[in-house]
Amino acid sequence: MVRRNTGVTVRAVDADACPVREVLDRVAGKWSVQILVAAAAGPIRFTELERGVEGISRRMLSLTLRHLERDGLVTRTVHPTVPPKVEYELTPAARELQPTLRRLTHWAERSRAYIAEARAAYDAEHPPELLDA
Length: 133
Fold this sequence. Notes:
Order of helices and strands: HHEHHEEH
Shape: elongated
Strand order of the largest sheet: 1-3-2
Number of helices: 5
């Protein structure tokens, strides 16, 4: 039997890691990155975001925007017009994140072909049932 003692309790690690994990989960979520990148140019309307984020449903866009607003990454402004004009804009905290998101999305674009080839090579060598394990 191997005895492991790092001097750190599981409770202490989980208590400290949980808030960081929550923030990373929110910011790095499937739709959050795309929304934050699409809104980088300045105030943007809901329909513009809907067109700019390929594949997102209206409900998921609305829900993700609400979460980003709650987390202080997006502000929502309703202009008193008929019909109401609603715009979303990045907060200073989200603007600080932009260079990192740009680098991440550029890396993903550059690496897309490489990752597709790596997946195909892996799949050719490993039975599909191993991926679900």
